[in-house]
């Protein structure tokens, strides 16, 4: 085992490793400056469990109704050799009638390990032409995140048309009169972009289309409808953000050698390590809290607590309006006339005027 | 928290406690404490049962009384009407029902389709989870006494590795060519199934709505089969399916023949029915 | 985000209490608004689960859908909701629409948050084209409810309208909290900052409000742990009871489900009315009535349209109506910004900080000054204002004062005077026709005044072709929207 792998395993401790997926990678990409998340994800630490154990349970979970609905819709679109999907692709992308192949890459002769499945995905997608392959279900892709490989298990079908692969993403939110919840579409587009990147890694830049296909239920029914989504912008974003994620080796270099997030569970799985100690261990890795974390990262309440008193905790627009000054305390001192350091003189003058006007009017 | 003492608590007290327990369960879940959540869930279930019992007793005694708002009482007024008596239980064992459905389809199918077909043509249905475990039982039975039964519900085999194809069931008496699945086979089998269903509908004088719905689900994914759900003709569906089938048939048959030959040659009896998990790649060596 | 609001957020964070960022209320508030709190089933486009609705704090109506995936029960829900909402609207239209002008008052809908607005729009979309006879018939009130909800959610897109309000949006517009905008989207948390319980800081109250178990979300989404631990069990109990044919058991299961949902709705119901109380205390801004009058006109117009048998709004606008709507929206947004600045010195202060306005004291005034350069003498008083604000306006620029919007003030000279700036202004208009200005029409020495480059006179919205003349580049004239079979029979599952 290489030394980085060993360090990461030590960080995770005895817990089962958590794998990256498109959602965690796009979440990581929304906050590329956060070393804490990058490191804990690379180590496969169970952030949800750690957050709950230290007294900061994550504010999001999934409703079983949403899960059931999502699974049912996906199954419906894919059942019978993805018959429904095939009709959509024929209608919308003029897929030739001869192209109706469906290959399930969910296992390889009963073997379900990542390496074997990835090798099989690679082999099929690189050697099979349109005459032998149209839709590929459960491909296993790989992407470098923070200098390390992460396997992606998309619930999607890559399909070939005119020598190029398209990523198909199946989501169960509704498209109503041609419109869907913009936040959900944006999230789906970012995730598709992650898959496109991973596929390009495998097949080469020009073999994968930057237009992905989003399949959703139409209006209030469960009938699927396909919408092409241009993810060029998201590709740029994800690529840039991924390149900004510090290399895991560098992050490890800044942490003490004996750092670990192990909960020291006993044979019954009951953690014995004091919560305070675990929290202190987490806090050793520098974070970069922003309110966006509240919907993307399990550790958000812990980090928010830590960021108490910073302008960042109030959100980026507020922080920018306040001249990028880091602490609320400093802002208010300046507003009350404290001598500003040279680089904040202009902001300070504005703050004093603003405070003066407020005081006079209230 | 105190143990439940059934019957001793009033409806109001039980409702309070149920409320408290629900809070406690959700807190345990949010805190990631699975063990505690489990204990509390059990306790909650007992409390809810006690609440039911107390109310049922009160109703039996003719004192319909509840701690709910007047509004809720009124809205529940139609309670009795909406209930439907349970469907009469199936007469045949599960494996025979599955066999009936597969025999109609004549192609390997997923549990969901099998259940839907049985509902549409044989009037009973079954939970798909039971079908999944059926395959394991069949394999066990075959291993214990090979070929003791006239047929087994067995697996379809992936053409490349001859491993059990995920989620597809077949009948052991079918020729191997029908039970191996190449990349075109899902489409070919889908079209075959559409033809079988169309024919079955033509055979029965008054098809039930479930059968017509099933036919429409197939027709909707076949070019030229039907314009919409209300104008659907079995004959037209059959013709459209046959038209597309003719496009894929040859290529699919080639793949299947080749794989079937390999299976007969390489696999032992049990493996021929339930697939192998030892890598046996097709012609090109890759493993 | 503006500097003043950002500063107020910093102050709120320091004091642990929300800070006011307005001195007046910028929205109209009815005497008797209708509060509507919808809940929907997770994972579905628009599957109503329950709602609490009413115009009387002490008498909420609760509606429950026991089988949220059942089409019939959804339409029953819509019909029950229609009874409440249409009954409420009818109480404003007991008379025929006045032959001229709007009804004296209009019904107002309050929902907890933007999700509530979206729910309203989707519910309207899935009900307004339904047929009341033939196959798939629904109760006659269902499409009518849909058309009213469509009217309300469309109006809600107009920035100046107060017919349908999202409570978190209104509160966040009037108070700055010491947390981020993301966190302000929670009604309970926002109110925690603004109006914490005695002995608690706003910050602490907001934190307490984040516990989904003690403080349910304000909808339409329910908390996942509620779904998984409570709701799923209740729905399963109902299904079991129904399958067993035991009417009494079904009744009990329904009671239990309703009680569970009530715990998710009641806290928000209280919060909504508390928020209404907090907003009522604020005096309304000067232009609030004007804007409400526009709302009343729109409402009255819709009543007329319905009574004359007009068709429901289409699924989507055609090119011309969409463009016209957008132009009107843009103009209204500008006008609203100016009106708010004139109504509220704290809003105007934002413009003072950017140099688009200044406030100061009149240090010299020549109220009787005449301009005799032309053929006839004209009354052109001059005043000098001393201000500490930054003045970017140059001589020749026309300014307006928020207190005398009909009077133009032309900048004559701007001079530095120590820390202050002196601005000489020449006034025109708003002083009657004689050569002697009426009392009070010219600011007097010692009076505090504010002048700004913001103006309330807008270009009219450009004329758009008649719908029948839609150019081919925009798809040509659309055929008028006639609800189709498909609209009436569309799945809602
Ligand atoms: S919540 Fe903390 S760990 Fe997670 S991304 Fe934000 S700052 Fe990083």
Fold and architecture overview:
The complex is a heterotrimer of chains A (362), B (287) and C (493). Chain A is 47% helix and 12% strand. By secondary structure, chain A is an alpha/beta fold. In chain A, strand 7 and strand 8 (224-230) form a beta hairpin. The mean pLDDT of chain A is 88. Chain B is mainly alpha-helical and 287 residues long. Chain B folds into two domains: 10-59; 94-282, no CATH class. Chain B contains twelve helices and three strands. A three-stranded mixed sheet of chain B has the order 2-1-3. The longest helix of chain B has 33 residues, at 234-266. Chain B is extended, with a radius of gyration of 27 Å. Chain B starts with 10 loop residues before the first helix and ends in a 13-residue tail after the last helix. Chain C has a domain at 3-318. Chain C has 14 helices and 15 strands. A six-stranded antiparallel β-barrel of chain C has the order 8-11-14-13-12-15. The longest helix of chain C is centred in the middle third of the chain and has 35 residues, at 247-281. The two termini of chain C are 41 Å apart. Chains in contact: A-B, A-C, B-C. Chains B and C meet through helix 1, helix 2, helix 3 and helix 4 of B and strand 4, helix 9 and helix 10 of C. Iron/sulfur cluster (SF4) is lined by residues 31, 34, 36-37, 287-289, 293, 297, 299-300, 303 of chain A.
Task: Give the overall pLDDT of chain B as a whole number.
Answer: 81
Please give the radius of gyration of chain C in angstroms.
28 Å
Tally of individual domains of chain B: 2
Bound molecules: iron/sulfur cluster
Side by side, the strands of the main sheet of chain B go 2-1-3
Chain pair forming the biggest interface: A-C, 53 and 52 residues
**Number of E-state strands of chain B:** 3
Question: Can you give me a brief rundown of this structure?
Answer:
The complex is a heterotrimer of chains A (362), B (287) and C (493). By secondary structure, chain B is mainly alpha-helical.
Attribute tags:
heterotrimer; B: 287 residues; mainly alpha; 2 domains; three-stranded mixed sheet; 12 helices; 60% helix; disordered N terminus; disordered C terminus; C: 493 residues; alpha+beta; six-stranded antiparallel β-barrel; five-stranded mixed sheet; 16% strand; binds iron/sulfur cluster
């Amino acid at each position: 085992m290489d030394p980085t792998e060993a360090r990461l395993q030590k960080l995770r401790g005895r817990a089962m490793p958590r794998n990256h997926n498109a959602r965690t990678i796009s979440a990581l990409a929304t906050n590329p400056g956060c070393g804490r998340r990058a490191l804990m994800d690379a180590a496969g630490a169970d952030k949800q469990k750690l957050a709950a154990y230290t007294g900061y349970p994550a504010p999001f979970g999934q409703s079983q109704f949403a899960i059931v609905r999502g699974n049912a819709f996906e199954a419906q679109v894919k059942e019978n050799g993805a018959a429904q999907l095939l009709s959509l692709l024929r209608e919308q992308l003029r897929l030739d009638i001869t192209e109706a192949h469906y290959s399930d890459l969910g296992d390889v002769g009963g073997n379900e390990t990542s390496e074997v499945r990835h090798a099989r995905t690679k082999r099929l997608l690189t050697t099979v032409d349109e005459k032998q392959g149209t839709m590929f279900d459960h491909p296993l892709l790989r992407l470098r995140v923070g200098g390390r490989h992460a396997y992606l298990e998309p619930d999607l079908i890559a399909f070939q048309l005119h020598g190029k692969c398209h990523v198909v993403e199946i989501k169960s939110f509704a498209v109503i009169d041609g419109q869907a919840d913009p936040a959900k579409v944006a999230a789906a587009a970012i995730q598709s972009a992650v898959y496109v990147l991973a596929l390009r890694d495998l097949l080469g830049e020009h073999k994968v289309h930057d237009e992905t296909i989003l399949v959703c239920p139409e209006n209030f029914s469960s009938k699927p409808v396909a919408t092409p989504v241009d993810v060029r912008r998201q590709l740029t974003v994800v690529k840039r953000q991924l390149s900004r994620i510090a290399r895991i080796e560098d992050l490890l270099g800044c942490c003490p050698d004996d750092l670990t997030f192990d909960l020291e569970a006993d044979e019954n799985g009951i953690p014995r390590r004091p919560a305070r100690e675990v929290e202190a261990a987490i806090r050793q890795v520098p974070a970069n809290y922003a309110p966006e974390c509240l919907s993307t990262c399990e550790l958000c309440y812990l980090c928010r607590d830590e960021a108490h008193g910073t302008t960042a905790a109030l959100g980026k627009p507020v922080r920018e309006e306040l001249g990028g000054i880091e602490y609320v305390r400093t802002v208010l001192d300046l507003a009350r006339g404290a001598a500003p350091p040279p680089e904040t003189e202009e902001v300070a003058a504005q703050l004093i005027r603003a405070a003066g006007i407020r005081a006079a009017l209230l | 928290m105190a143990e439940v003492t059934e019957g001793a608590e009033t409806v109001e007290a039980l409702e309070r406690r149920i409320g408290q327990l629900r809070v406690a369960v959700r807190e345990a879940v949010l805190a990631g404490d699975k063990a505690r959540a489990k204990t509390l869930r059990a306790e909650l279930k007992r409390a809810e049962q006690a609440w039911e019992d107390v109310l049922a007793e009160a109703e039996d005694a003719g004192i319909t009384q509840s701690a709910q708002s007047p509004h809720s009482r009124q809205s529940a007024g139609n309670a009795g009407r909406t209930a439907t008596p349970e469907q009469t239980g199936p007469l045949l064992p599960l494996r025979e029902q599955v066999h009936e459905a597969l025999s109609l389809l004549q192609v390997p199918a997923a549990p969901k389709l099998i259940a839907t077909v049985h509902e549409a043509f044989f009037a009973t249905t079954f939970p798909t989870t039971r079908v999944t475990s059926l395959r394991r039982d069949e394999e066990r039975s075959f291993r214990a006494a090979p070929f003791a039964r006239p047929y087994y519900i067995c697996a379809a085999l992936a053409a490349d590795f001859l491993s059990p194809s995920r989620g597809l069931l077949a009948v052991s008496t079918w020729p191997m060519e029908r039970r191996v699945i190449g990349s075109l086979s899902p489409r070919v089998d889908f079209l075959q199934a559409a033809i079988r269903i169309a024919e079955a509908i033509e055979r029965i004088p008054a098809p039930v709505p479930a059968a017509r719905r099933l036919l429409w689900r197939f027709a909707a994914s076949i070019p030229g089969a039907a314009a919409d759900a209300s104008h659907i003709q079995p004959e037209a569906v059959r013709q459209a399916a046959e038209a597309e089938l003719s496009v894929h048939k040859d290529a699919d048959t080639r793949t299947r023949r080749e794989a079937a030959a390999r299976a007969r040659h390489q696999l032992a009896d049990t493996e021929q029915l339930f697939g192998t998990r030892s890598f046996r790649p097709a012609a090109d060596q890759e493993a | 985000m503006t500097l003043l609001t950002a500063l107020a957020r910093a102050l709120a964070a320091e004091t642990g209490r929300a800070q006011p960022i307005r001195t007046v209320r910028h929205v109209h508030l009815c005497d008797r608004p209708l509060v509507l709190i919808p809940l929907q089933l997770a994972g579905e486009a628009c599957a109503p689960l329950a709602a609490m609705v009413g115009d009387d704090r002490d008498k909420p109506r609760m509606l429950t859908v026991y089988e949220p995936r059942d089409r019939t029960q959804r339409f029953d829900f819509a019909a029950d909701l229609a009874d409440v909402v249409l009954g409420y609207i009818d109480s404003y239209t007991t008379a025929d629409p006045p032959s001229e002008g709007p009804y004296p008052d209009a019904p107002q809908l309050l929902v907890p948050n933007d999700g509530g607005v979206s729910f309203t729009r989707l519910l309207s979309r899935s009900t307004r084209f339904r047929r009341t006879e033939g196959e798939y018939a629904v109760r006659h009130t269902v499409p009518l409810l849909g058309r009213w909800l469509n009217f309300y959610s469309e109006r809600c897109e107009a920035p100046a309208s107060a017919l349908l309000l999202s409570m978190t949006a209104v509160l966040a517009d009037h108070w700055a909290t010491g947390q981020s905008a993301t966190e302000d989207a929670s009604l309970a948390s926002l109110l925690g900052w603004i109006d914490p319980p005695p002995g608690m800081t706003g910050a602490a109250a907001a934190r307490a409000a984040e516990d989904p178990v003690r403080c349910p979300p304000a909808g339409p989404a329910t908390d996942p742990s509620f779904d998984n631990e409570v709701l799923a069990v209740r729905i399963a109990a109902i299904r079991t009871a129904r399958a067993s044919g035991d009417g009494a058991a079904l009744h009990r299961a329904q009671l239990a489900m309703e009680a569970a949902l009530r715990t998710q709705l009641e806290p928000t119901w209280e919060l909504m009315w508390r928020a209404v109380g907090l907003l009522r205390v604020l005096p309304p801004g000067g232009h609030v009535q004007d804007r409400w009058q526009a709302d009343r006109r729109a409402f009255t117009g819709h009543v007329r349209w319905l009574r004359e048998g007009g068709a429901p709004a289409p699924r989507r606008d055609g090119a011309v109506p969409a463009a016209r709507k957008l132009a009107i929206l843009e103009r209204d947004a500008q006008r609203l910004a100016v009106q708010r600045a004139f109504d509220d010195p704290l809003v105007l202060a934002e413009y003072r900080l950017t140099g688009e306005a200044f406030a100061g004291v009149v240090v010299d005034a020549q109220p009787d000054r005449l301009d005799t350069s032309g053929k006839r003498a004209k009354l052109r008083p001059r005043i000098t204002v001393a201000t500490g604000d930054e003045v970017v306006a140059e001589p020749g620029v026309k300014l307006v004062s928020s207190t005398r919007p009909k009077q133009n003030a032309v900048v004559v000279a701007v001079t530095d005077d120590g820390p202050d700036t002196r601005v000489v202004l020449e006034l025109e208009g708003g002083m009657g026709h004689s050569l002697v200005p009426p009392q009070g029409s010219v600011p007097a020495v010692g009076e505090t005044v504010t002048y700004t480059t913001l103006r309330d006179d807008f270009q009219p919205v450009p004329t758009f072709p008649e719908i029948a003349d839609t150019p081919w580049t925009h798809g040509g004239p659309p055929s008028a929207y006639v609800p189709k079979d498909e609209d009436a029979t569309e799945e809602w599952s």
